Every structure is written in C-alpha cells, then in structure tokens.
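Try this one yourself first.
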C-alpha cells in the first residue's frame, strides 16, 4: 500500500509544505513550497503575519495537490502561541509572538501559582512565553470577545475545515494542561482569569477532523517538536532537535516530575503518539539568525565558513533568558561569553554555535539514566551545519548520529500514515526511515 500525504510544517522562521509518499520503502519527501518569515512589529506588539502565513499555506497545498492526489493533510507548528476566535469564527486579532515583551512580568503570576505546583501539575518548567502567561497579559476586552482559543496548528486546521478542536501535544505546551489527566486545568485557567470554556475539546493525533477541498485533514503531533521526534528520535536515547530552538532530551514512557528533574530544569512534553519527551529548550539557530538580521542579512554559508576557519571561542549560556529577544544579539552573546569585541562576525557566529552545543551537552548530562557512551541523535534543519555537529561531538565526547533534516514534516506524515492504515504501529513506521548516519566519533 502506498499513499501520498500533504505535510504542513511551520517553523518559527520558515514554513514548508511537503508531499510525502509512504509505503513499504523509505518515505519520499518533496518540499513543494517554502516561505521564510519572522514576527513583525504591529502596533504595540510583536505579531505573526498571520494572513500571509495562511495564504502561503494554501498556496503550498494547492501546489502539492496539483502534483497528484493527496490522501490526507496534517499540520504542525511551533508551540505556545494561539489565536482567539469570536462568535463568528473570525480572529479577534492577529496572533502575538511568544517573543513579545508583554510577558516580562510573568513571575508575579508564577509566584501566585507556585513554580513547583505548576511543574507538578503541567510537567513544564515555567517560561515567560508559555501560553498561560501570555493569556495573563492579554487584553481583557479582547479576551471577553473571544469564544474559542486555538493553538496555531489547530487554528490552521480551523481555517481549512471550520472545525474547533485541540490536540494534546500542542495543548501540552500551554501550561494549562494537567499532564497526567490529559485534561485542561480549571485551576490554572482561573489563575490567569481565563474562562475554561474558551479551551477546545482535545482529540488525539490521527483523528480525522474534516476536509479541505475534499482531502481529509487529520490531526498530527501539532507541536512541531512532537512530530519531529516521531521521525528523529529513538526511545530512551538522548536527542537534539535542531532549529530555531535546540530541544534537548529523550523520549520515555512516563513523565518525571521529581524534585531532581525540577532542579535540573527539565520539563515533560506530551508525545504525539504516547509517552513524553523529557527535555529542555536551548536557544538555537535563532542566535545566528538574529545576528544576521542586525548585520543586514549577510550570507549564512559564508558566515559559517568564516566561523569554522577560526579556533573555538568561549561559549555563553544558551539557556540564559536574556537571549529570548535582546535588542542586540551579538552584544548579548559577547557579554555572556566574555568576548571583548561584539563586532567580529566570525567570532560571534562561532560563539553562537559553540554556545548552542555547550548548553545542549549540559542538558544531556542532566538527563537521568543516560549512559556515558550513548550516542546523541541529532535531527532537524540545523544538522546541515558541520560546525554544530563537530561542536556537539567535541564538547560531549559522544558520537553524533544524524536523523532526518525534515524531521517534523516526516513525523507529521508518518502519523497520517498510521491514521490511514499504511502502518500498523509506530515501530513499523519508523522502520521505513533511512538508518541514521554516524556524523562523528
């Protein structure tokens, strides 16, 4: 049995619409449309250019469908951000970016809830960009106008199908979901003055929720990391999902809300098809991209080549919250790493990559039960950089095995394949993927 599905994969710096053919052999993936984007300042907030993103999604799906029949469509995006729909099903306002400064005072809300209680309930380490803190800072009048709150993957599903729904892996990024009950927490919604009736009913990945131009639309792991891990990770082995963020952790069957996990800064994110990802967010290629933006968008390959030509430089802490949205990324990196000159582009670029790698290694070392000689599995767009792979291997003393570059789109597609009966189990689906390549020893 062979089918072709459409996988819409939103990253925080580019979106991709792919055709993926699934069957007995390795999946065949074709990126039919790509659109580079970034949040924009609109009024007093940093927002996503949502109308443009929706238009680019539909353009990509039209291109995908024009190349041949699609058996299904699935959508994944980054987590935490959301849209509010009014009684007519229209957006109250364009979605605000998680990097917006409105949550800078989130700790006042967290102190009322209690950080340890928040962790025990949601499995998450509180971060200022969590949906719960965004809602706590949201304009009350606009909240009052809203009838539904949808995370971005399901907001796109709603646009395509008209269906109001939620999916656990995207809901699990909000800080509003009870980790073990897999239901919305009325207590946490009340803590930020949100009517729980705004929160959508949850349905599992693999559920068909509607159709677009006659093509079935299935929920997948709505959180892009959940989809990426389906295609990129192996159970219990450490992984580094590389993109705008580095998501560093491992898959496991049960959550870990122990005092040790809390102290280590580890969080639990729901898997798309069961289990959890015990992980931590590390600032990733955002560090380099923000420097490039400040420098006038010089060629990335040339920057990385110059960075690779110099000796390793000191690393900063890529877990530092000051890297979320600094006014000058190069100066902030230089300060964190103790570098004297924030204008040397080769040094700053090298520092960004070394900082990503060093902080990823720190997180891997904090994961309980990981063997000292276990290889690291790296996947996602960032593995195109030999400089990052070398830094990971050198700083960890581990071999680095490569998973797919388009891991999120592939995981999205494999979930659709399970829903369509192409695969009987996740293990069967994963078995069709090309074996990992050893990058370095």
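Now uncover the answer:
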């Amino acid at each position: 049995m062979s089918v072709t599905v459409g996988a819409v994969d939103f990253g925080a710096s580019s979106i991709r619409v792919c055709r993926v053919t699934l069957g007995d052999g390795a999946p065949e993936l074709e990126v039919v449309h790509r659109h580079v984007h970034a949040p924009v300042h609109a009024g007093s907030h940093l927002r996503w250019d949502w109308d443009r993103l929706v238009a680019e999604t539909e353009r990509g799906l039209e291109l995908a469908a024009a190349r041949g029949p699609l058996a299904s469509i699935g959508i994944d995006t980054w987590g935490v951000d959301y849209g509010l729909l009014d009684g007519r099903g229209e957006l109250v306002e364009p979605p605000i970016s998680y990097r917006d400064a409105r949550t800078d005072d989130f700790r006042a809300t967290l102190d009322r809830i209690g950080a340890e209680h928040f962790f025990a309930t949601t499995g998450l380490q509180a971060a200022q960009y969590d949906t719960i803190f965004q809602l706590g800072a949201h304009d009350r009048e606009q909240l009052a106008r809203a009838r539904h709150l949808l995370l971005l993957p399901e907001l796109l599903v709603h646009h395509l199908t008209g269906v109001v729904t939620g999916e656990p892996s995207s809901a699990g990024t909000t800080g509003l979901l009870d980790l073990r009950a897999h239901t919305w927490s009325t207590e946490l919604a009340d803590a930020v003055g949100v009517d729980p009736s705004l929160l959508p009913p949850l349905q599992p990945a693999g559920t068909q929720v509607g159709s677009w131009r006659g093509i079935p639309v299935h929920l997948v792991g709505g959180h892009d990391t959940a989809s990426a891990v389906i295609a990129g990770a192996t159970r219990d082995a450490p992984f580094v999902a590389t993109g705008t963020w580095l998501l560093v952790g491992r898959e496991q069957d049960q959550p870990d809300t122990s005092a040790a996990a809390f102290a280590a800064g580890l969080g639990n994110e729901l898997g798309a098809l069961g289990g959890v990802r015990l992980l931590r967010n590390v600032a990733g290629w955002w560090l380099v991209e923000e420097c490039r933006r400040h420098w006038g968008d010089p060629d990335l390959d040339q920057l990385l080549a110059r960075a690779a030509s110099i000796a390793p430089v000191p690393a900063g802490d890529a877990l530092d919250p000051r890297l979320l949205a600094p006014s000058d990324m190069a100066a902030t990196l230089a300060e964190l790493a103790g570098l004297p000159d924030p204008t040397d582009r080769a040094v700053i670029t090298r520092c960004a990559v070394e900082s990503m790698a060093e902080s990823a290694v720190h997180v891997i070392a904090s994961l309980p039960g990981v063997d000292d000689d276990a290889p690291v599995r790296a996947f996602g767009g960032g593995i195109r950089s030999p400089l990052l792979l070398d830094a990971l291997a050198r700083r960890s003393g581990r071999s680095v095995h490569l998973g797919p570059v388009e891991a999120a789109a592939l995981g999205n597609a494999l979930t659709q394949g399970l829903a369509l009966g192409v695969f009987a189990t996740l293990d069967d689906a994963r078995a069709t993927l090309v074996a990992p390549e050893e990058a370095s020893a």
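Discussion: The longest strand covers residues 14-22. The mean pLDDT is 95.
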